[in-house]
Amino acid sequence: MIHLYSDSRCPFSHRVRIILHIKDMDFKIIDITINSRQDLMTLNPYNQTPVLVDDIDKNNKKKDLILIDTGIICEYIDERFPHPQLMPIEPAEKARLRMLMHHLDKELFSYLRAVEGMNPKDTKLKKDLDKTKKHIVAGLDGIAQVFVANKKANYIFGNSFSLLDAAVLPLLWRLNHYEIEAKPSWSGMMKYADRLFAKPEFIASLTPAERGMRK
C-alpha cells in the first residue's frame, strides 16, 4: 500500500493527494501536523513533505520504496497506477510536458516553497515576502495566457487532466490564503480553477485546514 507523509497545509502534499484521489486507489495519509515529525526526518533528510513510501511485495523480500521529490512521486504514481493516464504517451509530448513542469518549478513553485517558509506576521520579512509574491504573480500571468490564447481550453496541457493541472490547482486554491488578488486577465484561468475545484476528487483531496483557505 502507498503511505503518504503529508502536511495538511502543504501545497506540494496537496498535489500528490489530488493525484491519489484521481487514481481512486488505496492509500494511507500520515499527517505530520498530527503525528510526530520524527518519522518524516528519518525518511527525508530535508525534513520536507511530501514523502511517499510504497510497501512493495514483501513475499519477495523487497524493501519499501521511499520517494521524497514531488515530481518524482507524481510520475511514479502515474506509471504505477496508469488509469487514468496523467502523462502523454507519445515521447515528444511527454518531454514537452516535463519541460513545462521544469520551467514552472524554476519560475513559480520554488517561490511557493519560499512563501510557505515565511511568517506573514514577521515585519522584518515583509519585503522578502512581497518580492516572493510578485514572482508568484508573474508565474501565474504566464499560465493565464494559456486561457487567453485558447478560450476553449479545458486544461493547461492538451485535452485531458494532467500532472500539470494537479501542480497548479493547489496554488490557485491558496490565493486568498497568500493574500494574492486575482487579476482581471486571469478570468479564464479562474473559471478553469472553479470548474476543477468542484470535482469530487479535488474536494476529497482537501484537508480541513485547506478547506478554510478559500472564501
Structure notes:
- The chain is α+β, with helices and mostly antiparallel strands and 215 residues long.
- It is built from 9 helices and 4 strands, in the order E-H-E-H-E-E-H-H-H-H-H-H-H.
- It folds into 2 domains: 79 residues, Glutaredoxin, CATH 3.40.30; 115 residues, Glutathione S-transferase Yfyf (Class Pi), Chain A, domain 2, CATH 1.20.1050.
- The protein has a 4-stranded mixed β-sheet.
- Helix 1 runs parallel beside helix 3, helix 1 crosses helix 6 and helix 5 packs across helix 7.
- The longest helix has 26 residues.
- The protein is globular.
- The protein starts with a strand and ends with a helix.
SSE map:
Blueprint: E1 2-6, H1 11-23, E2 27-31, H2 38-43, E3 51-54, E4 65-67, H3 70-80, H4 91-116, H5 126-149, H6 163-173, H7 187-197, H8 200-205, H9 208-211
Parallel strand pairs: 1-2
Antiparallel strand pairs: 1-3, 3-4
Helix pairs in contact: 1-3, 1-6, 4-5, 5-7
